[in-house]
Structures are given as structure tokens and as C-alpha cells.
Amino acid sequence: MIIVENFVEKAFRLIYGRCYDPTTTEDPESLGPHVVSALDLGVPAIAHDLSYFDTTFQVPEGLSRHVVSSMEVQANWYRELLEAWEEATPPPKTREEAARLVIQTLKGDEQAEVEGLLAFYGLPHPPPPPPPPTFIQVSAESPSSLPEGIQFELHTLPIDAKDVGDGDGMTIYVSTADPQESKSIPREVLLAVDQRLEVRGRKNSKRADALHRQIINLGYRFINHQNGEILARKYRIRLRGIDAPEMSMPFGNEAKDELVKLVRDRCLRMLVYEIDQYGRIIADVFCDGIFVQEAMLKKGFAWHHKAFDQRLALATWEKEAMEKRVGLWASPNPEKPWEWKKKNRREEKASILS
After folding, report:
1. Which residues are catalytic?
2. Are the C-beta atoms of residues 4 and 26 closer than 8 Å to each other?
3. Which pLDDT value is given to residue 5?
């Protein structure tokens, strides 16, 4: 009886924070499937289960009817959710707030698994989107509702530092479990995936590796994630509206390092405007609510490329960095990347002709 009372008290502390002052306790026989009286779904249920996990390291038994991940993976979810819940100020009070915390915390996991967890607690999936960044008004609805000029959105898997090429470009991977991606997987990729699964079952690793190389050549690859593999599509990204120093220019390495710090191990949201002549996606990039181009300009690790993007906000952020003399603006007259590339092309051409 005392144990159940402690669980319920701790659950309500997770819901209401430190201001909660328990005055009554529940009879354990009245408690619902999540050991929460009367309210067996929503915020009280998940708050109780998190407090129960904190005490026993056990996840709810019924969860496995909604998800397929192992108990070990489920335990990792609850460990991460417990930490996020306790750090939230204030803690979630509504189903929408709780759902948003779950999705944000488990954003690197399979969408179907996160939706199964939300369904288990009767939480909306996806919840109503939070207010978009102040820089640009973007709806989280289907691409048809996006502002003019944006073709579609991409939501990436966690970014590997080695996939950041320089201060304004990177390679990203998007899970093919994403509804947008699942509709467009080439038949050759699907066939190679099926064949690889079959030969791996026969322990033919050499043939499996060859099939994976074939899949990679087709623009896809398997990525290790959450104790398993995810088939993902590869995209090359160019940050819209800015130009960072080339790697062989002064501040080239510093610009790349700054971009790595911003995106490493994080899932990104990309608003895609176009595909350039090199097959790169031209996009605005957001990371945990941070507009990446804004951060790079304010730190002084990129120029506003006015010839291709006339947004006033970008010019303002560049001016702020210039006035503070931060990053590359610490140099008295830093060379612009597009001028540096033009000069190098002329020198290469002259060298060939001579």
C-alpha cells in the first residue's frame, strides 16, 4: 500500500511539479491499467509510468501490443522520457504538450514506434505543431500548405559529423519509413533490399555487402540506428542564402566546425526550395528550433549571398557580425568565397593554356 501511494504521489509531482501537495491517496484496487485512478490515459498515465520506471526500471506490460521494439529499447525510451519530463519547466499539463515532449525526445526513433507509444497513452499523433520559428511562417501540414516557393519538407535522421562537408553543405539521410519517401523507393532498391535480407539469412556476408554497395550506388543505404538498421535515402544539402569560406580559405575549417557543432547527432527539419545544377537540395535548415543560417551568419562564419537571396533578415545578421568583428570579420578585408573561386578558375585556366 505504501509503495503504491509513493508511486501515485511521484506521478502527480511529475504532472504538477513541486507545487503538488498530496492530501489523499488511492486504494490500489481502484487504479487503472497504468495504476492511475479514473484517468487511465493521457498525462496522468504517462507521468505515473515514468515514476514507476524510475523506481523499478520496468516498462508497462501492455506497451508491447502497440510497438515491436525490444524491452531494452523500450527501457531506453522511458529513461530518455523521464529525464526530459523532469527537465521540462513547467511539466506537460495537456495531452498535446505530453505528445510534443514524447515526439521531440524520441525524434530519432522510427515514426511508427513513436506513434504506437502515443496511442498506448491516448495522446494525439502528431500533436498540433508548436509555433514556427519567427523567421519564417511554415505550416507542419502537407507540402501543398507550405508557403510559396517551398517545394517540400525533409526530416532527417541524426547527422553524422563526417557528413558535414564545409560551412554551408552537408549530406543527410531520410528514413524510408517517412510517408513521403516510402512512396518513391525505386524498384531496383526494393529488389536489392529483399535479396540482401535473404542472403544475410544464409550468412552470406560477402554477397550482402555487395548488395549494400549496389543500394548505396542507387542513392540509398542502411544506417545503424537504435539497435537496428534503417533504410535511408541520401540527399546533398546546400544551405540557402549563405556562402561559407571554402575549406582551403581562411576560416574554412572554423566554419565547418561551427556547423558540425550545430547539427551533430541531431535530427534536422529542412524546407526545400529548389535543386541546383549540381543536384544539391537548396534549403532552409532548422535544428531544435534554431535557424542554422541565422546562427552561421551571427557567428561570422558565412556571408549573405545577396546575388541569390535578397532576404533582409540575412543581411541584418551579417551586418551584426561585421560590426562585432566576430569570426571571419576579425580580418580587415576577408575575401568572399565566390570571388576566390572565380580567381582560382582564371588561374587554373591560365595554367592550362600556358
Report:
1. 238, 246, 280
2. yes
3. 41
